Amino acid sequence: MSKKQKVFRPKARKPKGFRDRAGRELLSETRMLARICEVYAAYGFTPLETPAFEYTDALGKFLPDTDRPNQGVFSIEDDDKQWMSLRYDLTAPLARHVAEYYDQSPKPFRRYQVGTVWRNEKPGPGRFREFTQCDADTVGASGPHADAEAIMMLTDAVLAAGIDAKDFVVRVSSRQIMSGLLRHIGIDPDDAERAAGVLRAMDKYDRLGAEGVALLLGPGRKDASGDFTEGAQLAGDQIEAVLAFMACGQVDTQATLKAMASLIGDDETGREGLADLTSIADTLAALGYAPHVRIDPSVVRGLDYYTGPVFEAELTFPVKNDKGEVVQFGSVGSGGRYDGLVERFKGVRVPAVGCSIGVSRLLAALTDRGGEEDEAPLVVVLALEPTQMIDYHLMAREIRAQGMRAEVYLGGSGMRAQLKYADKRGAAAVVIQGDDERSAGQVTVKDLILGAKLSEEIESNAEWRAGQPAQVTVPRTDLVTAVRGTLAFRSLV
Protein backbone atom coordinates (compact mmCIF):
# COMPACT_ATOMS: atom_id res chain seq x y z
CA MET A 1 0.00 0.00 0.00
CA SER A 2 1.49 3.34 -1.03
CA LYS A 3 2.06 5.96 1.59
CA LYS A 4 -0.39 8.87 1.39
CA GLN A 5 1.35 12.01 0.14
CA LYS A 6 1.20 14.93 2.55
CA VAL A 7 -0.54 17.99 1.12
CA PHE A 8 1.44 21.21 1.48
CA ARG A 9 -0.56 23.95 3.16
CA PRO A 10 1.10 27.35 3.29
CA LYS A 11 0.98 29.26 6.55
CA ALA A 12 -1.42 32.20 6.44
CA ARG A 13 0.85 35.13 7.23
CA LYS A 14 1.81 38.59 6.00
CA PRO A 15 5.33 39.70 5.01
CA LYS A 16 7.05 41.83 7.65
CA GLY A 17 6.25 45.50 7.38
CA PHE A 18 2.93 44.99 5.59
CA ARG A 19 -0.58 44.98 7.04
CA ASP A 20 -4.22 44.26 6.29
CA ARG A 21 -6.70 47.08 6.74
CA ALA A 22 -10.49 47.07 6.75
CA GLY A 23 -13.69 48.73 7.89
CA ARG A 24 -13.73 52.13 9.53
CA GLU A 25 -10.05 52.86 8.87
CA LEU A 26 -10.42 52.43 5.11
CA LEU A 27 -13.72 54.31 5.05
CA SER A 28 -12.20 57.21 7.00
CA GLU A 29 -9.16 57.30 4.72
CA THR A 30 -11.25 57.25 1.55
CA ARG A 31 -13.39 60.16 2.72
CA MET A 32 -10.40 62.12 4.00
CA LEU A 33 -8.58 61.71 0.68
CA ALA A 34 -11.70 62.80 -1.20
CA ARG A 35 -11.76 66.06 0.79
CA ILE A 36 -8.06 66.67 0.19
CA CYS A 37 -8.33 65.95 -3.54
CA GLU A 38 -11.25 68.38 -3.76
CA VAL A 39 -8.85 71.07 -2.53
CA TYR A 40 -6.22 70.11 -5.10
CA ALA A 41 -8.81 70.11 -7.88
CA ALA A 42 -10.16 73.49 -6.74
CA TYR A 43 -6.68 74.95 -7.30
CA GLY A 44 -6.80 73.72 -10.90
CA PHE A 45 -4.72 70.56 -10.50
CA THR A 46 -5.49 67.51 -12.66
CA PRO A 47 -5.27 63.88 -11.43
CA LEU A 48 -2.48 61.65 -12.72
CA GLU A 49 -1.75 57.96 -12.22
CA THR A 50 1.69 56.49 -12.86
CA PRO A 51 2.74 52.80 -12.77
CA ALA A 52 3.70 51.10 -9.53
CA PHE A 53 6.97 50.07 -11.21
CA GLU A 54 9.55 52.40 -12.74
CA TYR A 55 12.88 51.54 -14.31
CA THR A 56 15.33 51.71 -11.43
CA ASP A 57 17.72 54.12 -13.14
CA ALA A 58 14.80 56.55 -13.59
CA LEU A 59 14.15 56.72 -9.85
CA GLY A 60 17.40 58.53 -9.35
CA LYS A 61 17.86 58.10 -5.62
CA PHE A 62 18.58 54.38 -5.82
CA LEU A 63 20.79 53.13 -8.66
CA PRO A 64 21.55 49.48 -9.51
CA ASP A 65 24.47 47.77 -7.81
CA THR A 66 26.42 44.95 -9.44
CA ASP A 67 24.04 42.22 -8.32
CA ARG A 68 20.64 43.59 -7.40
CA PRO A 69 19.42 47.17 -6.91
CA ASN A 70 17.47 46.46 -3.73
CA GLN A 71 18.92 49.10 -1.42
CA GLY A 72 15.85 50.93 -0.20
CA VAL A 73 13.52 49.70 -2.96
CA PHE A 74 11.90 46.44 -4.06
CA SER A 75 13.28 45.46 -7.46
CA ILE A 76 12.90 42.77 -10.13
CA GLU A 77 14.70 42.15 -13.42
CA ASP A 78 12.55 42.43 -16.53
CA ASP A 79 12.70 40.13 -19.58
CA ASP A 80 14.99 42.60 -21.34
CA LYS A 81 17.48 42.44 -18.44
CA GLN A 82 16.53 45.90 -17.17
CA TRP A 83 15.88 46.42 -13.47
CA MET A 84 12.49 47.74 -12.39
CA SER A 85 11.62 48.96 -8.89
CA LEU A 86 8.42 49.68 -7.03
CA ARG A 87 8.17 53.45 -6.67
CA TYR A 88 9.37 54.78 -3.31
CA ASP A 89 7.53 58.10 -3.71
CA LEU A 90 5.32 59.88 -6.25
CA THR A 91 7.76 62.67 -7.14
CA ALA A 92 10.37 60.64 -9.04
CA PRO A 93 7.68 59.09 -11.30
CA LEU A 94 6.30 62.60 -11.89
CA ALA A 95 9.72 63.78 -13.07
CA ARG A 96 9.90 60.84 -15.48
CA HIS A 97 6.38 61.52 -16.76
CA VAL A 98 7.07 65.21 -17.38
CA ALA A 99 10.33 64.41 -19.19
CA GLU A 100 8.69 61.71 -21.32
CA TYR A 101 5.77 63.93 -22.39
CA TYR A 102 7.59 67.25 -22.15
CA ASP A 103 6.64 68.61 -25.58
CA GLN A 104 2.95 67.61 -25.33
CA SER A 105 2.32 68.85 -21.77
CA PRO A 106 1.20 72.38 -20.82
CA LYS A 107 3.74 74.48 -18.95
CA PRO A 108 3.39 74.76 -16.03
CA PHE A 109 2.19 71.17 -15.59
CA ARG A 110 -0.07 70.81 -12.55
CA ARG A 111 -1.05 67.39 -11.24
CA TYR A 112 -2.21 65.68 -8.07
CA GLN A 113 -1.87 61.99 -7.32
CA VAL A 114 -2.89 59.51 -4.65
CA GLY A 115 -0.98 56.25 -4.69
CA THR A 116 0.75 53.47 -2.82
CA VAL A 117 4.52 53.65 -2.39
CA TRP A 118 6.97 51.04 -1.12
CA ARG A 119 10.19 51.26 0.89
CA ASN A 120 12.55 48.30 1.31
CA GLU A 121 13.53 49.37 4.81
CA LYS A 122 13.52 47.78 8.23
CA PRO A 123 9.95 47.91 9.58
CA GLY A 124 9.21 49.04 13.10
CA PRO A 125 6.35 50.29 15.31
CA GLY A 126 4.19 52.49 13.10
CA ARG A 127 6.70 52.18 10.25
CA PHE A 128 5.53 50.13 7.29
CA ARG A 129 7.04 49.12 3.96
CA GLU A 130 3.85 50.02 2.09
CA PHE A 131 1.86 53.20 2.58
CA THR A 132 -0.14 55.87 0.74
CA GLN A 133 0.93 59.34 -0.34
CA CYS A 134 -1.22 62.20 -1.59
CA ASP A 135 0.76 64.78 -3.60
CA ALA A 136 0.21 67.90 -5.66
CA ASP A 137 3.00 69.45 -7.75
CA THR A 138 3.56 72.29 -10.21
CA VAL A 139 6.34 71.67 -12.74
CA GLY A 140 7.58 74.57 -14.84
CA ALA A 141 6.85 77.43 -12.43
CA SER A 142 9.71 79.32 -10.83
CA GLY A 143 9.61 82.12 -8.33
CA PRO A 144 8.17 82.48 -4.85
CA HIS A 145 4.49 82.73 -5.87
CA ALA A 146 4.34 79.06 -6.87
CA ASP A 147 5.94 78.17 -3.51
CA ALA A 148 3.40 80.34 -1.67
CA GLU A 149 0.57 78.63 -3.55
CA ALA A 150 1.85 75.18 -2.54
CA ILE A 151 1.94 76.27 1.10
CA MET A 152 -1.59 77.72 0.88
CA MET A 153 -2.87 74.54 -0.75
CA LEU A 154 -1.26 72.32 1.90
CA THR A 155 -2.86 74.50 4.58
CA ASP A 156 -6.27 74.26 2.95
CA ALA A 157 -5.90 70.49 2.53
CA VAL A 158 -5.11 69.94 6.21
CA LEU A 159 -8.11 72.07 7.18
CA ALA A 160 -10.35 70.21 4.73
CA ALA A 161 -9.20 66.88 6.14
CA GLY A 162 -10.71 67.88 9.48
CA ILE A 163 -7.85 69.35 11.54
CA ASP A 164 -8.84 72.44 13.50
CA ALA A 165 -7.02 75.66 12.58
CA LYS A 166 -5.64 76.02 16.11
CA ASP A 167 -4.09 72.54 16.03
CA PHE A 168 -1.45 72.89 13.33
CA VAL A 169 1.17 75.22 11.85
CA VAL A 170 3.06 75.17 8.56
CA ARG A 171 6.75 75.84 9.23
CA VAL A 172 8.79 77.26 6.34
CA SER A 173 12.52 77.61 5.64
CA SER A 174 14.86 77.55 2.64
CA ARG A 175 17.64 75.29 1.40
CA GLN A 176 19.22 78.30 -0.34
CA ILE A 177 19.56 80.06 2.98
CA MET A 178 21.06 76.90 4.46
CA SER A 179 23.59 76.85 1.61
CA GLY A 180 24.44 80.43 2.51
CA LEU A 181 24.92 79.37 6.13
CA LEU A 182 27.26 76.55 5.08
CA ARG A 183 29.43 78.88 3.02
CA HIS A 184 29.42 81.41 5.84
CA ILE A 185 30.97 78.83 8.20
CA GLY A 186 33.48 77.63 5.58
CA ILE A 187 31.77 74.54 4.11
CA ASP A 188 31.21 74.17 0.37
CA PRO A 189 27.56 73.15 -0.28
CA ASP A 190 28.78 71.35 -3.40
CA ASP A 191 30.82 69.03 -1.18
CA ALA A 192 27.84 66.68 -1.12
CA GLU A 193 29.07 64.29 1.56
CA ARG A 194 30.12 66.91 4.08
CA ALA A 195 27.15 69.23 3.44
CA ALA A 196 24.75 66.30 3.76
CA GLY A 197 26.28 65.38 7.13
CA VAL A 198 25.56 68.86 8.45
CA LEU A 199 22.03 68.97 7.04
CA ARG A 200 21.21 65.51 8.43
CA ALA A 201 22.27 66.69 11.87
CA MET A 202 20.21 69.89 11.54
CA ASP A 203 17.17 67.85 10.47
CA LYS A 204 17.13 66.15 13.90
CA TYR A 205 16.79 69.41 15.84
CA ASP A 206 13.13 68.86 16.76
CA ARG A 207 13.79 65.34 18.04
CA LEU A 208 17.20 65.70 19.72
CA GLY A 209 17.33 69.39 20.64
CA ALA A 210 20.40 71.60 20.61
CA GLU A 211 22.53 69.24 22.70
CA GLY A 212 21.93 66.21 20.50
CA VAL A 213 22.46 68.17 17.27
CA ALA A 214 25.69 69.66 18.68
CA LEU A 215 27.05 66.14 19.11
CA LEU A 216 26.04 65.17 15.58
CA LEU A 217 27.65 68.32 14.21
CA GLY A 218 30.81 67.53 16.16
CA PRO A 219 32.36 64.18 17.11
CA GLY A 220 29.20 62.06 16.96
CA ARG A 221 26.43 60.76 19.19
CA LYS A 222 25.60 57.49 20.94
CA ASP A 223 21.86 56.87 21.30
CA ALA A 224 20.00 55.08 24.10
CA SER A 225 20.55 51.69 22.47
CA GLY A 226 24.30 52.21 22.34
CA ASP A 227 24.50 52.73 18.56
CA PHE A 228 27.00 55.40 17.58
CA THR A 229 26.39 57.89 14.75
CA GLU A 230 29.47 59.55 13.28
CA GLY A 231 29.36 63.34 13.49
CA ALA A 232 30.08 66.02 10.87
CA GLN A 233 33.34 66.94 12.65
CA LEU A 234 32.69 70.70 12.73
CA ALA A 235 34.76 72.99 14.90
CA GLY A 236 33.30 74.66 17.97
CA ASP A 237 32.65 78.05 16.37
CA GLN A 238 31.01 76.37 13.36
CA ILE A 239 28.69 74.38 15.65
CA GLU A 240 27.73 77.53 17.53
CA ALA A 241 26.84 79.30 14.27
CA VAL A 242 24.65 76.43 13.10
CA LEU A 243 22.86 76.17 16.45
CA ALA A 244 22.30 79.94 16.49
CA PHE A 245 20.72 79.67 13.04
CA MET A 246 18.46 76.80 14.11
CA ALA A 247 17.30 78.69 17.20
CA CYS A 248 16.64 82.09 15.62
CA GLY A 249 13.00 81.39 14.76
CA GLN A 250 10.62 83.79 16.48
CA VAL A 251 6.88 84.40 16.48
CA ASP A 252 7.36 87.63 14.55
CA THR A 253 8.15 86.81 10.90
CA GLN A 254 10.17 89.93 10.17
CA ALA A 255 12.30 89.40 13.28
CA THR A 256 13.04 85.84 12.20
CA LEU A 257 14.03 86.92 8.68
CA LYS A 258 16.30 89.62 10.11
CA ALA A 259 17.96 87.12 12.45
CA MET A 260 18.51 84.67 9.59
CA ALA A 261 20.04 87.41 7.45
CA SER A 262 22.57 88.21 10.16
CA LEU A 263 23.77 84.58 10.21
CA ILE A 264 24.39 84.01 6.49
CA GLY A 265 26.63 86.97 5.74
CA ASP A 266 26.78 88.28 2.18
CA ASP A 267 26.43 84.92 0.42
CA GLU A 268 24.59 85.49 -2.88
CA THR A 269 22.63 82.22 -2.85
CA GLY A 270 21.61 82.77 0.75
CA ARG A 271 20.45 86.29 -0.01
CA GLU A 272 18.39 85.05 -2.96
CA GLY A 273 16.77 82.50 -0.69
CA LEU A 274 16.07 85.17 1.90
CA ALA A 275 14.42 87.39 -0.71
CA ASP A 276 12.21 84.51 -1.87
CA LEU A 277 11.27 83.64 1.71
CA THR A 278 10.37 87.29 2.37
CA SER A 279 8.16 87.36 -0.74
CA ILE A 280 6.48 84.10 0.32
CA ALA A 281 5.79 85.48 3.79
CA ASP A 282 4.36 88.71 2.35
CA THR A 283 2.09 86.81 -0.06
CA LEU A 284 0.78 84.48 2.65
CA ALA A 285 0.13 87.39 4.98
CA ALA A 286 -1.74 89.36 2.28
CA LEU A 287 -3.96 86.34 1.55
CA GLY A 288 -4.80 85.66 5.20
CA TYR A 289 -2.56 82.65 5.83
CA ALA A 290 -0.21 84.30 8.34
CA PRO A 291 -1.96 82.69 11.37
CA HIS A 292 -1.21 79.23 9.94
CA VAL A 293 2.41 79.80 8.85
CA ARG A 294 5.68 80.41 10.68
CA ILE A 295 9.16 81.02 9.28
CA ASP A 296 11.30 78.47 11.11
CA PRO A 297 15.01 77.88 10.32
CA SER A 298 14.91 74.46 12.02
CA VAL A 299 12.94 73.00 9.06
CA VAL A 300 15.44 71.15 6.86
CA ARG A 301 13.65 68.23 5.12
CA GLY A 302 15.72 65.11 4.69
CA LEU A 303 15.54 64.57 0.92
CA ASP A 304 18.58 65.71 -1.03
CA TYR A 305 16.71 66.98 -4.08
CA TYR A 306 15.25 70.15 -2.50
CA THR A 307 16.78 73.33 -3.92
CA GLY A 308 14.73 76.20 -2.44
CA PRO A 309 11.93 76.80 0.05
CA VAL A 310 10.95 73.78 2.18
CA PHE A 311 8.00 73.44 4.54
CA GLU A 312 6.24 71.07 6.93
CA ALA A 313 2.68 70.97 8.27
CA GLU A 314 3.04 70.11 11.94
CA LEU A 315 0.27 69.22 14.37
CA THR A 316 0.73 70.97 17.69
CA PHE A 317 -1.52 69.03 20.05
CA PRO A 318 -0.11 66.41 22.45
CA VAL A 319 -0.74 62.66 22.15
CA LYS A 320 0.50 59.59 23.98
CA ASN A 321 3.01 57.32 22.25
CA ASP A 322 3.27 53.53 22.56
CA LYS A 323 5.04 53.94 25.90
CA GLY A 324 2.30 56.16 27.31
CA GLU A 325 4.52 59.25 27.13
CA VAL A 326 2.98 62.60 26.14
CA VAL A 327 4.59 63.87 22.93
CA GLN A 328 3.79 66.29 20.12
CA PHE A 329 2.19 64.60 17.13
CA GLY A 330 4.56 66.14 14.59
CA SER A 331 4.53 66.42 10.82
CA VAL A 332 1.61 65.23 8.67
CA GLY A 333 2.59 66.94 5.42
CA SER A 334 5.56 68.56 3.76
CA GLY A 335 6.97 69.85 0.53
CA GLY A 336 9.35 72.21 -1.15
CA ARG A 337 11.05 73.33 -4.34
CA TYR A 338 13.08 70.86 -6.40
CA ASP A 339 14.46 72.31 -9.62
CA GLY A 340 16.79 69.47 -10.58
CA LEU A 341 14.73 66.28 -10.94
CA VAL A 342 13.51 66.71 -14.51
CA GLU A 343 16.98 67.94 -15.46
CA ARG A 344 18.28 64.40 -14.99
CA PHE A 345 16.26 63.40 -18.06
CA LYS A 346 16.19 66.58 -20.17
CA GLY A 347 19.55 68.17 -19.47
CA VAL A 348 17.87 71.51 -18.80
CA ARG A 349 16.78 72.91 -15.47
CA VAL A 350 13.00 72.69 -15.00
CA PRO A 351 11.63 74.42 -11.87
CA ALA A 352 9.17 72.48 -9.73
CA VAL A 353 7.47 72.72 -6.35
CA GLY A 354 5.03 70.43 -4.57
CA CYS A 355 3.49 69.22 -1.35
CA SER A 356 2.73 65.77 0.03
CA ILE A 357 0.29 64.61 2.70
CA GLY A 358 1.33 61.80 5.04
CA VAL A 359 -1.95 59.92 4.74
CA SER A 360 -1.47 57.41 7.57
CA ARG A 361 -0.21 60.02 10.03
CA LEU A 362 -2.98 62.50 9.23
CA LEU A 363 -5.59 59.76 9.55
CA ALA A 364 -4.11 58.71 12.90
CA ALA A 365 -4.33 62.32 14.06
CA LEU A 366 -7.97 62.59 13.04
CA THR A 367 -8.75 59.33 14.83
CA ASP A 368 -7.00 60.59 17.95
CA ARG A 369 -9.18 63.72 17.84
CA GLY A 370 -12.36 61.67 17.42
CA GLY A 371 -12.62 62.33 13.70
CA GLU A 372 -12.85 58.74 12.47
CA GLU A 373 -15.72 58.14 10.08
CA ASP A 374 -18.56 55.73 10.86
CA GLU A 375 -20.13 53.57 8.21
CA ALA A 376 -23.77 54.23 7.42
CA PRO A 377 -26.03 51.86 9.41
CA LEU A 378 -26.42 48.40 7.88
CA VAL A 379 -29.71 46.50 7.69
CA VAL A 380 -29.65 42.71 7.23
CA VAL A 381 -32.68 41.00 5.73
CA LEU A 382 -32.86 37.54 7.26
CA ALA A 383 -33.39 34.65 4.84
CA LEU A 384 -35.62 32.28 6.82
CA GLU A 385 -37.32 30.47 3.91
CA PRO A 386 -35.21 29.34 0.94
CA THR A 387 -38.24 29.50 -1.33
CA GLN A 388 -38.72 33.22 -0.62
CA MET A 389 -35.24 34.47 -1.61
CA ILE A 390 -36.59 36.67 -4.40
CA ASP A 391 -38.85 38.47 -1.91
CA TYR A 392 -35.94 38.98 0.47
CA HIS A 393 -33.87 40.53 -2.33
CA LEU A 394 -36.81 42.78 -3.21
CA MET A 395 -36.92 44.01 0.40
CA ALA A 396 -33.21 44.78 0.40
CA ARG A 397 -33.49 46.57 -2.94
CA GLU A 398 -36.37 48.74 -1.68
CA ILE A 399 -34.27 49.79 1.34
CA ARG A 400 -31.21 50.53 -0.82
CA ALA A 401 -33.32 52.56 -3.25
CA GLN A 402 -34.01 55.00 -0.40
CA GLY A 403 -30.30 55.59 0.26
CA MET A 404 -29.81 53.09 3.09
CA ARG A 405 -27.45 50.12 3.26
CA ALA A 406 -29.02 46.65 3.14
CA GLU A 407 -28.01 43.10 2.38
CA VAL A 408 -29.70 39.70 2.31
CA TYR A 409 -28.18 36.96 4.46
CA LEU A 410 -26.74 34.35 2.08
CA GLY A 411 -25.04 31.93 4.44
CA GLY A 412 -27.66 29.17 4.58
CA SER A 413 -27.86 28.96 8.40
CA GLY A 414 -30.82 29.17 10.77
CA MET A 415 -32.30 32.24 12.43
CA ARG A 416 -30.08 32.21 15.51
CA ALA A 417 -26.91 32.02 13.39
CA GLN A 418 -28.25 34.77 11.13
CA LEU A 419 -28.80 37.08 14.11
CA LYS A 420 -25.25 36.35 15.31
CA TYR A 421 -23.99 37.13 11.80
CA ALA A 422 -25.82 40.47 11.80
CA ASP A 423 -24.37 41.26 15.21
CA LYS A 424 -20.80 40.49 14.04
CA ARG A 425 -21.35 42.68 10.99
CA GLY A 426 -22.27 45.54 13.30
CA ALA A 427 -25.72 45.76 11.73
CA ALA A 428 -28.09 48.32 13.19
CA ALA A 429 -31.24 46.34 12.42
CA VAL A 430 -32.59 43.17 10.86
CA VAL A 431 -35.73 42.58 8.80
CA ILE A 432 -37.61 39.40 9.67
CA GLN A 433 -40.31 37.76 7.61
CA GLY A 434 -41.00 34.13 8.39
CA ASP A 435 -44.05 32.12 7.46
CA ASP A 436 -46.28 33.79 10.08
CA GLU A 437 -45.37 37.34 9.03
CA ARG A 438 -45.67 36.51 5.34
CA SER A 439 -49.11 34.95 5.79
CA ALA A 440 -50.26 38.10 7.59
CA GLY A 441 -48.67 40.40 4.97
CA GLN A 442 -46.30 41.83 7.57
CA VAL A 443 -42.60 42.25 8.36
CA THR A 444 -40.74 42.76 11.64
CA VAL A 445 -37.91 45.28 11.97
CA LYS A 446 -35.67 44.57 14.95
CA ASP A 447 -33.24 47.19 16.28
CA LEU A 448 -30.20 45.12 17.31
CA ILE A 449 -28.31 47.87 19.07
CA LEU A 450 -31.27 49.25 20.99
CA GLY A 451 -32.33 45.71 21.83
CA ALA A 452 -28.93 44.97 23.38
CA LYS A 453 -29.04 48.27 25.27
CA LEU A 454 -32.52 47.65 26.65
CA SER A 455 -31.72 44.09 27.67
CA GLU A 456 -28.93 45.47 29.86
CA GLU A 457 -30.94 48.30 31.42
CA ILE A 458 -34.56 47.09 31.75
CA GLU A 459 -35.30 45.01 34.84
CA SER A 460 -38.98 44.02 34.39
CA ASN A 461 -41.53 43.14 31.71
CA ALA A 462 -43.66 46.13 32.75
CA GLU A 463 -40.72 48.46 32.19
CA TRP A 464 -40.05 46.82 28.82
CA ARG A 465 -43.67 47.34 27.69
CA ALA A 466 -43.67 50.94 28.86
CA GLY A 467 -40.48 51.85 27.01
CA GLN A 468 -39.50 52.05 23.34
CA PRO A 469 -39.75 48.53 21.90
CA ALA A 470 -36.66 47.06 20.28
CA GLN A 471 -38.75 45.77 17.35
CA VAL A 472 -41.87 46.71 15.42
CA THR A 473 -44.15 44.64 13.19
CA VAL A 474 -45.75 46.55 10.33
CA PRO A 475 -47.55 45.85 7.05
CA ARG A 476 -45.17 44.76 4.30
CA THR A 477 -45.95 47.97 2.40
CA ASP A 478 -44.56 50.01 5.33
CA LEU A 479 -41.17 48.26 5.37
CA VAL A 480 -39.06 51.22 4.27
CA THR A 481 -40.87 53.63 6.62
CA ALA A 482 -40.31 51.26 9.56
CA VAL A 483 -36.62 50.80 8.73
CA ARG A 484 -36.09 54.53 8.38
CA GLY A 485 -37.88 55.17 11.67
CA THR A 486 -35.85 52.52 13.46
CA LEU A 487 -32.54 53.94 12.22
CA ALA A 488 -33.63 57.49 13.01
CA PHE A 489 -34.59 56.58 16.59
CA ARG A 490 -31.33 54.70 17.07
CA SER A 491 -29.34 57.82 16.13
CA LEU A 492 -30.98 59.66 19.04
CA VAL A 493 -30.12 57.16 21.78
Automatic annotation (TrEMBL):
Matching HAMAP family: His_tRNA_synth
Keyword list, A-Z: Aminoacyl-tRNA synthetase, ATP-binding, Cytoplasm, Ligase, Nucleotide-binding, Protein biosynthesis
Source domain of life: Bacteria
GO annotation terms (biological process): histidyl-tRNA aminoacylation
Residue segments, region Disordered: 1-20
Gene3D superfamilies: Anticodon-binding domain, Bira Bifunctional Protein, Domain 2
Binding site for L-histidine: 89-91, 119, 133, 137, 301, 305-306
Protein family according to the UniProt entry: Belongs to the class-II aminoacyl-tRNA synthetase family.
GO cellular component: cytoplasm
Matching SUPFAM superfamilies: Class II aaRS ABD-related (SSF52954), Class II aaRS and biotin synthetases (SSF55681)
Amino acid composition bias (Basic residues), ranges on this chain: 1-16
InterPro entries: aa-tRNA-synth_II, aa-tRNA-synth_II/BPL/LPL, Anticodon-bd, Anticodon-bd_dom_sf, His-tRNA-ligase, HisRS-like_core, HisRS/HisZ, HisRS_anticodon
A Pfam family this chain is assigned to: tRNA-synt_His
Catalytic EC class: ligase
Boundaries of every Aminoacyl-transfer RNA synthetases class-II family profile domain copy: 30-386
PROSITE patterns on file: AA_TRNA_LIGASE_II
Membrane-crossing residue ranges in chain numbering: none
Assembly and interaction partners: Homodimer.
Subcellular location(s) of the protein: Cytoplasm
Name recorded for this polypeptide: Histidine--tRNA ligase
GO molecular function: ATP binding; histidine-tRNA ligase activity
EC number: 6.1.1.21
Catalytic reactions on record: tRNA(His) + L-histidine + ATP = L-histidyl-tRNA(His) + AMP + diphosphate + H(+)
